[in-house]
Amino acid sequence: MEGEPTLRLRIFDLNCWAIRYLSRRRQERVRLIGDTLRQDGFDLVLLQEVWSEQDYSELKVKLASCYPFSHYFRSGVIGSGLCVFSKFPILDTLLYQYSLNGYPYMLQHGDWFCGKSVGLPGSRAGVTAPLLSPSLQLHAEYCRDKDAYLPHRLVQAWELAQFIRHTSKAADVVLLGGDLNMHPEDVGIRLLRGWTGLRDAFAEAMHFEGCKNGCTLVPDNCFTNNSELLPFPLGIRIDYILYKAISSFTVKCEELKTTTGRAPGRDIPFSDHEAVMATLHIQRQGQPAGATLGTSDPALADVVTEARTEVAAGLRAARRQRYSTGRMAVLALLLLLLQAAAALGTLAGLGTEQPFPKLSFCLLAFLALGVLVLATGLHLFHTMEVKKLHGTEDQMGMVLRALQERP
C-alpha cells in the first residue's frame, strides 16, 4: 500500500585500524568485532582499514551464518582495506581508485601504497528496488594547520561525488559509509553533499545516542593519538553514514548511535575510531521523486568556488614541484655527460699526467645516476598530479558556470 513502511535497515560502519604488525592488539580486536557483529544482527556492515586478507577471511568464516554475502575490495600495493558484509544478496561490485592518493615518497603516511578507493556493492534489499551502499576512505589529514593533502582530498571528494551521481541512476536508495577524514563543515564534505544530495544521518536522526556531537575520534579512546585532537579537546567527527532516495522511495534516519570507547564488557575499544550505527526507515512513495541536489544552487556555487580555489592552490604547488624535480633531473644528466666526457678523454690519452681516480669517479657516477632516476620518477609523478588537478579544476569550472547560469 502506498506510504507503508517497506524496510527497516540497520547499518554498522567502522574504521577497524587493523594494520598488520603496527596496530595494537589487532587480532584481539578483529575477533571482538566479529563476535559483536554476529550477536547484534545488523543488515549491512561497512568496514575500512581491514588491511590483512587473513583478517577478512576469519571474519567471513565467523559471520557466514548471519551475513551470507560479503566482498573484499583489492587495490594498490597493500590493498584498499575495504570490505562489506550483508544479509542481502550482493548482485555486483565495482571498485574505483581515486586518481590522486598522496605521495609515494611519504613513506610514514602510506596512503599512496594502499590506493584509497570507494567500493560499490549493488544489492537488492527485501522488496525495495536496487540498493547501492559504497564503503570508502579518503586521504588522511595528518596536520590541519598545514594540510599538504587538502587538494588531493578535494579531488577525491569530487571524484566520489561524480562516481555517486553516475552510478546511482539505476538505484532507488544510496547509502554511503566510511572514514571521510573531514570535519562536517569542511569544504570537501559540503561539496560531496551539495553535489550529490546525500543527507547526513547524524544531522537527520530522530534519536541519537553516543559520543557528544557524534564524534568518532575521542580522547576517551585508549588507542587515539591525542596529538591529533589538540585543537579539538572533545573529539572530532570524521566517520559518516550518508544516504538519499533516488526515485519513488524516501529514507529517514530513525536512530543513530556511536560506540563510546571500550566495547561492552571489555577493556579495549573496537578501534581507534568509534563505530557508527544507523537505523534507516525506507518507505515507498506514490510518485517518483527525482534526484535533487543537497543545497540551493547559489550555496552550492559558493562551495564549488571554494573547492576550486583550494584545488588551484594545489595545482600551483604541484607545478613548482614538477619544475624543481625536472631541473634536478637535468642537472644530474649534465653531470653524467661531463663524467662521460672525462672518461672518454682519459681513454683517448688526454690528461695522463695525473692518475685517474677510478673509485671516486664511479661513486660520483652512481650518485648522479641515482639522482637522475629519482628526479625523473618524481617529475613524471608530479606531471600526472598536475594533469589530475588541472582536470578537476576544469570540471569544477564547468559545473560552476552551469550553476551560475541557472535561472
Distance between the termini: 38 Å
Radius of gyration (CA) equals 25 Å
Give the CATH class of the largest domain.
Alpha Beta
Average residue-wise pLDDT: 86
> H/E series, N to C?
EHEHEEEHEEEHEHEHEEEEHH
Please report the number of helical segments. 8
- Give the CATH architecture of the largest domain: 4-Layer Sandwich
Largest sheet: 7 strands, mixed
Shape: globular
> Percentage of helical residues?
25-40%
**Number of separate domains:** 2
Order of the strands making up the biggest sheet: 3-4-2-1-14-13-11
> What do we call the CATH homologous superfamily of the largest domain?
Endonuclease/exonuclease/phosphatase
How many E strands? 14
Low-confidence stretches: none
> What's the CATH topology label of the largest domain?
Deoxyribonuclease I, Chain A
Keywords: Hydrolase, Lipid metabolism, Magnesium, Membrane, Metal-binding, Sphingolipid metabolism, Transmembrane, Transmembrane helix
Membrane topology: Multi-pass membrane protein
Family: Belongs to the neutral sphingomyelinase family.
Pfam family, one: Exo_endo_phos
Textual characterization of the structure:
Belongs to the neutral sphingomyelinase family. GO terms for molecular function: metal ion binding; sphingomyelin phosphodiesterase activity. It is a multi-pass membrane protein. It is found in: Membrane. The chain is of the alpha+beta class and 407 residues long. It has two domains: 6-284, 4-Layer Sandwich (Deoxyribonuclease I, Chain A); 298-345 and 355-405, no CATH class. Helices cover 40% and strands 22% of the residues. The chain has helices at 26-40, 53-63, 111-114, 150-167, 187-196, 201-204, 297-347, 358-405, and strands at 5-18, 44-50, 69-73, 82-86, 90-97, 117-124, 130-132, 135-137, 173-179, 199-200, 208-209, 239-245, 249-258, 276-284. The strands form two sheets. Strands 3-4-2-1-14-13-11 form a seven-stranded mixed sheet. Helix 5 (187-196) packs across helix 7 and helix 7 (297-347) packs antiparallel against helix 8 (358-405). The protein is globular, with a radius of gyration of 25 Å.
